[in-house]
Amino acid sequence: MSGLAVDLPIATERLVLRAHRTDDLDDLVRFHGDPEVVRYVPWPVRDRAATAETLEAKLGQTTLDEPGKWLVLAVELRSTGTVIGEVLLKWASDRQGELGFAFGRDHHGQGYAAEAARAVLGLAFDDLGFHRVSAVVVDGNDASTRLLERLGFRQEARHVDGVFFKGAWTTSLVFALLEDEWRAGRP
User: Fold this and answer.
1) Is residue 31 in some structural domain?
2) SS3 for 105?
3) What are 10's strand-pairing partners?
4) Of 74, 72, 103, whose CA–CA distance to 88 is shortest?
5) Among 14, 28, 52, 183, which is most buried by a count of CB atoms within 10 Å?
6) pTM, whole model, 2 decimals?
7) How many domains does the chain have?
8) What per-residue string of b and e applies to 8-45 under the rule 16 or more CB within 10 Å gives b?
9) Residue ranges of the N-acetyltransferase domain (predicted)?
10) Residue 147 domain flag
C-alpha cells in the first residue's frame, strides 16, 4: 500500500472531525492542561506554551502517507464550533491501524467519543480498507475500556508491567476490531 487518501472533514450528527487550526489553541489548552484528562494518555499536563508547540506539530498530521504515521484530528462540536477532543488513527502496517482519543472532561459521558471513534473506524475500514484496528489502554482506564467494548472491540492481551508510562511500569490492555466484525456490528 502506498499513501492513503483521507477526505476531510468528516461530519457526524453532532461533530466535525477535521485538521487542526492555529485558532484551536484555547480549546486545546482546556483539556491538554487537565490532569484528569491526561492521566491515561501518553503526554504530560501541558501549559499554554507546550500546547501551542504540540499544536504546531499537529497542523501537519492530516495525511497517512506511510506506515507509522498518525492522523490527528480535532473533534469540533458542530453546535458551537468548540474543539472538545481529539481522535487519532495510526497506519500501523499493511492494512492495520491503531485508534486513539482524548476528550475534555466537560464532554465526557455524552457519547461524543463514541461518535468520533465510529467515524474514524468508518474511515479506517470503509474508506482506507484496513483489515484490523487496535487500541492500547492503560489498565485502570475503565471509561476507555467500556467505550472500546461498546464499539465492538475485544480485549486480546494484558501486558503486566508491559509499558513504562509516566515514570512507572504499567499494565497495558490491547483491544482489536476486525473489518468483518465492524461490518457485522454496524447498525
Assistant:
1) yes
2) helix
3) 17
4) 72
5) 28
6) 0.95
7) 1
8) eebeeebbbbbbbeeebbebbbbbbbbeebbebbeeee
9) 15-180
10) no
